Amino acid sequence: MALIEAALSAAAAARPVLSAAARRAVPLSSCAAYSAAAASSSGGDIEDSPLLPMPRRGSLLARFRDRRALAVTDITATEWCEKQMEFVLEHGKPERTQAMKAGSERHAQLEQERTADLLRFALEQVIERVDVTIRSAEELWAVKLMNFIVGANQLMLEGITREIPVIGVVEGSWMIGVIDELRMPPDGISVHPILVDTKTRYKPTVPSEAQKRNGRLQVMCYKYLWDNLISEKFPAENFFSYFDLDSSYLLSDDIKQYIRLLGLNAKTLEDVLKYFKVTCHTLPRSQEQLLLRYELQADHSLLEEYQFSYDARWFKDQIQEVLSFWQGAREPKFVTEEERWKCSFCKFANNCPINMLPHQDVAD
Ligand code: SF4
């Protein structure tokens, strides 16, 4: 199994030049099974599906996510406080706190552990190292799609994968995210992987309901995107047109070499998309039960494991609410009276009109 993570976090619309390098161990045999399936796909199988409406002029979506997908983190940040999201878009993100940095480091550590697992797994196999330079949006998407294929292979072969990218259309808007962890159930009976998200906490306290609600929305986004990739036709035509991508774009030798190392043969972005679609249709849907884990930053001890069920109705309502903000259908909302405590952690509090309003303090 293998991973390349060249510029995964870079904005999809950042074109034309993105330069990133990734060094990862790559076995030669893991994806060979896809060759025949993808080769059998006809050349012109991009589905005809109605184009999605373009974002309303002047909306936040049009101004800040033009030809880009909304990130799952955009959704959760909006759910946290719409006014704060607007401040971030208009003025940029405030400096990251120590707690935020520690959280990112923990994710990086979990990802490193996965890479170590991969290396152990790959020891018995032929290993090559590849440098991948990203030159265009088409190549960036090719790498993202390959990362999905690699992560999906790891899940099916080893029973666990981390940091796997997912993309899809949710309530009419393109959305992208990176699933923290997918693991197969330990019972060996169920074939449906469990979606897990690990959050780190600075203090040894259990999360508030607002934090849990935000976490639930995040993991439900991942479930929706994962299950949708598996059960629905990928809207390829929309994908190419919305992101302004050339489906017949010829990938660089670097990327083609990496893809060959995985046992695949792709020359264009469309070729990679075919492998991606074949992969999606071989995967199982995720479990209805989702898991949030809360760890203490200092020693990674477990504070709480919180299991909950996917709620399609609730999820749809939440997404529609968030999208109405992004689409400019209404003014941004402030936090509710019960959640005014969030304002004491907000870098924009001094400039926020909510502070002109009377309020009662609510403890965290
Ligand atoms: S001060 Fe409160 S209401 Fe205003 S942006 Fe910050 S969190 Fe939102």
Automatic annotation (TrEMBL):
> What Pfam families does this protein map onto?
Exo5
User: What GO CC annotations are associated with the protein?
Assistant: nucleus
Gene Ontology biological process terms, A to Z: interstrand cross-link repair
From the UniProt record, which GO molecular function terms apply? single-stranded DNA 5'-3' DNA exonuclease activity
Cross-referenced PANTHER family: EXONUCLEASE V (PTHR14464:SF4)
Q: Which family does it belong to?
A: Belongs to the EXO5 family.
Name-wise, this protein is Exonuclease V, chloroplastic
Native species: Oryza punctata
